[in-house]
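If your schedule permits, I should be very grateful for your opinion on a structural question. What I wish to show you is a protein chain and, alongside it, a tokenised description of its three-dimensional fold. Would you kindly read the sequence against the tokens and tell me how you understand this chain to fold? Here, with my thanks, is the record as I have it:

===
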Amino acid sequence: MAEALRRFADGQAGRLHLLPDLRHAPHYTDAELFSVALTMPTANRRYSTQKLFVKVLPASVKEPARHRLARLSNPEFAKLHMVDQPYPPYPVGDGRHLMFQEMANGGDDVVTLHDLSGRLLVTTVEAIADGLLKGWNRADAIGVSIDHTTVGEYVRQELEKMVGIESVSSAARRLGLPDAGTRWLRLDDTTVRLNPLHLLAADTALATVPMPFVAGLTHSDLHGGNVLIPHESADVPRPDWFQLVDFSDFQEDAPLTRDLVCLVQTTILRAVAPPVTAADGAQRGLPPDQADALRDYLIRPDAERPDNVLPALADVISIGYGAGAPYARRGGWGREWRAQYLLSLVSQALICLTYDNIGDTGRQWCLRLAVEALEAYRQELLKKSPELAALLTSPVATQLPILPTIGIPHDSQHGGRSPGRIDQRWLSTGSDRAWKLQSTMPPSAPAPTRNQPPTDDRTPTRKQRLRYHTLLFTGVVGVVGISGLTYAAGSQSPGSNGRLPQLTASALPSRSPTPSTRSEPLGPPADRRLENLARQVAALQEKPTQGRFFFSCYESWSLDSTTTSGRKVSHHEYRLWFTPRLSGERWVTDLDPSGPRRPQRFLYQRGDLTGVSPLPPDDPDEIGEHLRDLWQARPPEGQDGAGMLQLVAESYLYHPFTPAQRSALIQELARFSDIEYREGYVDRAQRPGLAFQAKDKAGRWHTLLFQRDGRLLSYELVDAEGTVLTHRLYLRNTRTDSIDTSCES
């Protein structure tokens, strides 16, 4: 290799220096990757030096030619969104070639689309979709480019272009899917679906149906690892400056839905089925109901958005489909766009069956997506061509082969997932609604903050950002899981002093919720106790906390409501450092009975920590008014004492209140006659205190446990049967100047 580089430099009358950050990606590509500095002579015996990115390509790879054609296809778009090749490919001498590219973003910071989340992810996907259609494939004022094929040929070409038909067929056989000769499958005793592999049989009735499709310039492998997002400065990403890389599969006349579906589906898939964790073999993706809802919404993006679809992912789906539909309708091809979109979903889902890093959960989800997207296409076709009814009407389910479940029960395709799954609130665009939809958390859960975990945009800091010459090999053909800046740190134990008992049962212990089994109130009523506590706390004198960051640490147990038997518990410790401008860092540690695991860290830029409750007013009187405003904004069923307990619990989660502020919050609770005092209550750390509870309209009991200085010790939610749905320990709230704060006070 060194000899080939020397020969190349000699041929340019220059000198070439290999930069120290050599990279190689044997798992993701056959190409070796280098960055080099090429010094060339200029006029007046002077020299100029340029940094270049070098890929060593196998003989079979035609990327340099395809990249050049892609740039020539629309020079204006290429100038903004593709790196240049300043030199033609150079032969190594053994069939391989060197490919030279300029550094993306002038060698300054870039991240991949896979590194983004939350609103920044949505904004970037929108910029990419807009750029592909309105920029690269700028349509004529009166129409779009149309090509013609058949249904079977459309799917065959999509598979052949990316992974090959035989690869898909082999993957399907390994999963137990019948071959192309089998037309129908059954999901259960009554539900029948077409076998998607049946489309690969050239002479079947459905495969030979003719179809036009909207065609144009396509990247053809547009997963998040092949999209780079430059930064204008250290902390200012520019989605509109996105750059596309790896044009090995560029095509000038392919279905335009190919890139959009690949972009959207691989983005969704990394949330549904992130890579299996090597340490414990667990795969912590979305809960089953959310994964299923996303699949259905992906198939019917023009339908009403389901309530349990996370906002950011739903927005990504809406953008992927919504950007293309107006484009196609310009020439009257709206119905055809819908049809090819469904077939592109089928194709991409079958391609995903060949991925080796999505686990059984991912393959099951993709298989079901292919089946249901094909069913949606069949229904569309029957509306358009009723004469095909005799050929496309499903038979009786009996005696048909069953859709394989890849070792996962059909009624719980995510059943093998660990209950301690990764916190997915990063996928929200910042609304409280997204957090409250999490199936492992109750409606009363706070709105913490995020990334692929919490709720923010997980944009890396400058120090941790990867530069272009180390980035290309991070893009897998298919899916890179939820990684980005999620990295392991040293083990962070809650402490060895026994302050937090380990969870040893498969479910949280029950609490007695009914008046007949609860301890009856003793002494003064709850409102008097709360008023007394508020007065005592207001009289306290404390030194104000100081520091650049707010720091919050809490531990939470939550019952997984998605299981039907052997109900399990997710158990996490959360640490959050953040500034008044809502930037910061979050550590999430998944805890299990054998001890704490290594924390994952998530970074948030300014303004991205939208899940954190608003900074409270300094004036105690204004705090009370602010809390009442939040309470009045709740739905009618939440305007009771239980609703106020939830608001107070959320307020305490992130902010270190002064005694006067704590007193004002407690005083608001005293206004509610349905809040009761609970005698003899202790939290899961066996800490006693003053406990107050109220029952909501659903019959669930909400309990807050206060210290006598007004600090909150715990929050608990118990259903009407006595099952503890959530228990949260408040460990520490303070201000600090360092991101290594202990949870110990």
